[in-house]
Amino acid sequence: MLYREAGQFKSTYAEDQQIFPIRQDRIALAVFLAFALLVVPVIGNQYWLGALLTPFLIFSLAALGLNILTGYAGQLSLGTAAFMAVGAFMAYNFVLRVPGIPILLAFVLAGICAAAVGIVFGLPSLRIKGFYLAVATLACQFFVLWALQKFGWFSNHSTSGVITAQQIVILGYAFDTPARKYLLTLGVVAVMALAAKNLMRSETGRAFMAVRDMDVAASVIGIPMMRTKLLAFAISSFYCGVAGALHAFCYLGTVEPEAYSLDLSFRILFMIIIGGVGSILGAFLGAAFITLFPIFLSLASSWVNDLFGVEISHAVVSNLESIIFGGLIIFFLIVEPQGLARLWQITKEKLRLWPFPH
Amino acid sequence: MTRARLAIATALISAAAFSGQAAAQAKEQFVPVNSYWVGPYAPGGSGIAAGMIDYFKLLNARDRGINGVRITWEKCETEYRNDRGVECYERSKNKGPTGATLIHPLSTGITYSLIEKGTTDKIPVVSIGYGRTDASDGRVFPYVFPLMTNYWSQNTAKIKFIGMKEGGMVKLQGKKFVNLYHDSAYGKETIPILETQAKMYGFTVTHIAVPHPGNEQQAQWLQIRQVKPDWVILRGWGVMNPTALKAAAKIGFPRDHIIGVWWSGAEEDVIPAGQAAKGYIAAGFNAPGADHVVIGEIQKHVYAKGQGELEDKSRLGTIYYNRGVLWGILTTEAVRKAQERFGKGQPMTGEQVRWGLENLNIDDRRLKELGAVGFMQPLKVSCMDHEGGGAVKFQQWDGSQWKVLTDWIASDQSIVRPMIEASAAQYAQEKGITRRDCSTEK
Which of A237, A253, B2, B273 is least surrounded by CB atoms within 10 angstroms? Predict the structure, then answer.
């Protein structure tokens, strides 16, 4: 009833081509963004902002990066965490070694470094596909971590290989509290998500999807294979690199190369599989599920304890959390193999008909 | 019931539970117990958490807390992961009437992530037997306490012990060492001090990394066989330790020439290796065994009433459990010390506990009162020195239990301290911290 596009007429090409063609979507998004920007920092406490929302946004960005590569361009990659590591360590080094560099510029440069690494390790994609490519990107995962540990320059010769991110100051304004770091992260993520959404509607994005759906056909209709695949690797790695920089600067503050292990690459891959492969919204939904749900489960177990006064052995609770989480992943994949984003799409279609479905 | 109603009911229940938590509490000292009960490091995490909580239960039951202030705690699962560790810290830091007393991150990686957060929030980050070594310089790290013994001190004691075995430090000349380390911030922490000591005593050291979690070590031990070292230093954690011992047995490397650090020297590290572990030597900063007075008290006041934390009572008196009890002692003693200055019988804030930690002085007399003579070493912390102890005992696994080999072996602070100060000074410069002047501290 409320969610209906009847009566919204498009009279110009610009109107017809806008990102959100339905007015209700535009309003909802504007309200949502305004809420996230203005209300959340005021009502959220340090725990919510610093420990839940900031990592959620950062992992959304990384998942978005992987989704560009895997979901849109069809190139399977297991090097996401390595690209994040490049971003984190290079951002640290740019701030350390270039005096007076604006921090956002350092983030962008770090992203470009990650993109360069991505291009190098994307080269095998010109010859191999699918699972074999995944194994090739695995090399990137191991090589990058090895290099970060082997060469002391990356961590400024820190004895334990750990880097401590510098303070974030933009135009004399210090981003030092969880609320400010959250706002910075939100800003970066919102801009980059918008850019990604637009990119996927452009010629480049369509080329990506053509390569994904059938690369022989794509090259026959004149899409340059090498340029498109490497561009996908570059853009994806850029997103992951910026996510890594944010991860180090806005979230943990101190990172070691091991934090970006293969385990993290897999987690980000699961985010896009659960959220929805080839969907911008899916990256956010998947990141929310993978990062926030285990925490919710662990909180829920303490609520159950308080409520019923039964002290369940903590070892049992911790193991149960993993079991429930794993079970839910299987459940979601059976119910909706195309991910949470598809569920949302179905909801939207139903909403259009509601309350008269027949 | 329709799905919608079910959802509303669930939401209501969780909301009720959430508001129930906020009920007013008074005269309570809240200590977060962030540890890990799942994953490859669970034996360590669960044992330490149980020991610490049992000691709190003992104080609550026997002495009605610390001068009448009951100790409360809440467990949080970190999975030994940095992001979950930070989440647990943020979750627990404002609980209780005065917030978190202090935080035991229980992982070197998480400690690194919490140093700045703890300093900003005025919550002491206490890493007993792990963590950032150069934080022993309290002038640069006011809120970080690597108590008892840090990794570098342990390392000098270990080299000293090997020297004793070889018949004098001069005999170390030309010897070959392998440092088999867990590839993490924890594992890498001793590389610089080993290099320094290698130059001093004329031995060579080969560093070989084992990736997390360490259940695959064939390549590493093949390399060790090629190096043919005189001694292997095992800097392992969790499942890496029994795997290393089994691999050593396979290539026939004598187990009594493997020296483990204190995170490689618990029952859980050797029993899975079976016979392969016999003769293996490890360091320790707390004594094993259930025959200590304080463990007896816990049995009497906690376990006799069926309130113990351990489901498997045979773990009482194991290395990790006893280490947890030791952490409990240090935590509560710091609060007690803080109460002496800021008000007896009052809950202490993190800032006040920081003072308590910095002025902690557990001498032999106090050890006796605590029932911990021989259980731990005396400890005296100061503004300059956030480490306090610095001595290590060595123990050997005889196939069924740990036998203590030595008395407390003091570390060589003449090597460690200058390195700590240099490293801390570099950190201070990078972060723009001005060092505190310890003579003006009260």
Answer: B2
Phi, psi of B2 (to 5 degrees): -75, 165
pLDDT band with cut points at 50, 70 and 90 for residue B332: very high
Among candidate residues B5, B85, B6, the one with its CA nearest the CA of residue B45: B85
Token couple for B13: 């229940």
Q: Which pLDDT band, with edges at 50, 70 and 90, does A207 fall under?
A: very high
Identify the CA nearest to A123 among candidates A232, A206, A208. Answer: A232
Contact A255 B77 (CB under 8 A): no
Q: Collect all residues of chain A within an 8 Å Cβ-Cβ radius of residue B186.
A: 160
Of B291, B286, B294, nearest to B371 by C-alpha is B294
How many angstroms separate the CA atoms of A254 and B111, rounded?
9
- CB-based contact A159 B189, cutoff 8 Å: yes
Residues 6+ apart with CB under 8 A from A175: A167, A168, A169, A181, A183, A184, A250
Does B237 share its domain with B338? no
Instruction: Quote the pTM value.
Output: 0.86
Residues B220 and B293 in one domain: no
Return the structure tokens found at B192. 């610089």
Residue A5 maps to a domain: no
Token pair 């304890």 is found at: A305
pLDDT above 90 (res A203): yes
Q: What is the CATH number for A126?
A: 1.10.3470
Are the beta carbons of B37 and A253 separated by less than 8 Å?
Answer: no
Residues B273 and B293 in one domain: no
Q: Judged by CB atoms within 8 Å, which residues 295-324 of A form the interface with B? A: 295, 298-300, 302-304, 306-307, 313-315, 317-319, 321-322
Count the Cβ atoms, other than its own, within 10 Å of residue B199.
Answer: 10
- Shared domain check, B358 and B216: no
Residue pair A256/B112 in contact (Cβ under 8 Å)? The answer is: yes
Nearest to A271 by CA among A29, A70, A36, A47: A70
- For B183-241, what is each residue's pLDDT tens digit? 888 888 889 899 999 999 999 999 999 987 888 899 999 999 999 999 999 999 888 99
- Residue A190: pLDDT above 90? yes
